[in-house]
Amino acid sequence: MSSFNNTDLSAFKNVWVFCEQRNGEMMPTSYELISEGRRLADELKVELVGVILGDGVIELAPSVGGYGADRVIVCNHPLLKDYTTDGYTKVLSDMIEEYKPEVVLFGATNIGRDLGPRCAARLHTGLCADCTHLDVDMDTYKNFLKETSTLAEERIDGIKEIKVLGEPRTLERELKMTRPAFGGHLMASIVCPRFRPSMATVRPGVMKKAPYDEAKAGKVVIEQPTVNLSESDIQTEVVDIVKAAKKMVDLIGAEYIVSVGRGIASDVEGGIKLAEELAEVLGGVVGGSRAVIDSGWLPADHQVGQTGKTVRPKVYIALGISGAIQHKAGMQDSEYIVAVNKNSSAPIFEIADYGITGDLFKVVPHLIDAIKAAKAEK
Questions:
Q1: 366 in a structural domain
Q2: Is residue 373 part of a domain?
Q3: Hey, is 287 helix, strand or coil?
Q4: CATH number at residue 203
Q5: 342 and 227 co-located in one domain
Q6: At 26, which helix (H) or strand (E)?
């Protein structure tokens, strides 16, 4: 670490994405991040590099190129077969010290949330956790603020620089990392102007995966650097890996989601049962707003929103959900949004493609019957 100067910003170049694999299978979040990293690298006019750690995982490299990476660094070593905090932190930190990327992205998975902060601490740089939006280009960032924030446009247009240790510093090349703050009631944009690399963990499901390009997969440059790792570097031993049999709802991968909000308060059990019936005829899953989860009406893995999961289904049906900004941020990119609410002025109707003003307990049975009838006609 003595020769690593993280304040010499000009020495750092390129965007890196830690591509997480488990048992030789790439996690979907990695492809989402590679797709987003491609956009950031283009804005910075640098290369996009995927980094894979494991044992015998070279065959995964072309797929990373297929989603946009220019190069893939594959660190193969027997001690990297199973994830350990010590082993992965040392190897990835060593690679960052050697290659000096200016941006490093991790998925906000269990592994990413463990590995990212460890690397940031070892490299003495900052990390923004659980991001939902990333930008480099100032015009793109300002447009994002105009669409999603309550700041006055003239104030947004006036954003040009910040002060670092009393001196003005341009924001043009800084990675603007946006994440929920204060329990999801605010959105905070964070930059790391003094140190490199800028590091972030990104929530799964918030970045759109690009189409796979076979030609790019065939052209990607693959590097296999020497890995300096020994058993003495790892303080723990993986004796066995036991997978829990707990059934978790797959909100991120679902094409149809039926979510419930406070509107089911008069009959919680009945409201959830209706949502489950509607989800079943659609071939989808049930979600819920934060109020529903906090009230204990549904388990936490059903939560949609800034403090839950960000989803992009084909159809999102909001039952009795008012449409607070925290919830809208987690589902507003759905292809079609259908809202059912008694209050005709509920904010959810502002983003809904189809809105029904009425009692969900009366409306939903009609929806279920109509969908069943439509299916029967096919």
A1: yes
A2: yes
A3: strand
A4: 3.40.50.620
A5: no
A6: strand 25-26
User: Shortest CA distance to 279 belongs to which of 318, 334, 221, 333?
Assistant: 318
Round to whole Å and give the CA distance between 365 and 361: 7
CA gap 240, 106 in Å, rounded: 25
Is residue 249 in a domain?
no
Q: Identify the CA nearest to 320 among candidates 354, 294, 298, 288.
A: 288
Indicate whether 167 belongs to any domain: no
3-state helix, strand, coil in the chain (%, to 5): 40, 25, 40
CA distance 331 to 348: 11
* pLDDT per residue as tens digits for the range 228-238: 998 888 888 77
Helical segments of the chain, H only: 28-44, 61-66, 85-99, 110-123, 138-148, 153-157, 214-219, 268-282, 290-294, 325-328, 360-377
* pLDDT tens digit at each of 378 positions of the chain: 457 899 999 999 999 999 999 988 999 899 999 999 999 999 999 999 999 999 999 999 999 999 999 999 999 999 999 999 999 999 999 999 999 999 999 999 999 999 999 999 999 999 999 898 999 999 999 998 888 788 888 898 888 888 888 888 888 889 999 988 776 667 889 999 999 999 999 988 888 889 999 999 999 999 999 999 988 888 887 777 776 555 567 788 789 999 999 999 999 999 999 999 999 999 999 999 989 998 899 988 899 987 788 888 999 999 999 988 778 888 888 999 999 999 999 999 999 999 999 999 999 999 999 999 888 887
For 62-105, what is the HEC assignment? HHHHHCCCCEEEEEECHHHCCCCHHHHHHHHHHHHHHHCCCEEE
Contact (Cβ atoms closer than 8 angstroms) between residue 171 and residue 138: yes
Q: Specify the pTM.
A: 0.76
Residue 146's CB is within 10 A of a number of other CB atoms, namely 13
Residues 197 and 63 in one domain: yes
CB count in 10 Å sphere of residue 87 = 24
Q: Phi, psi at residue 123, to the nearest 5°?
A: -90, 0
- CATH assignment of the domain containing 320: 3.40.50.1220
Q: Residue 310's domain spans which residues?
A: 256-377
Q: Quick one: 203 and 271 in the same domain?
A: no
Q: Which of 64, 56, 86 is nearest to 20 (CA)?
A: 64
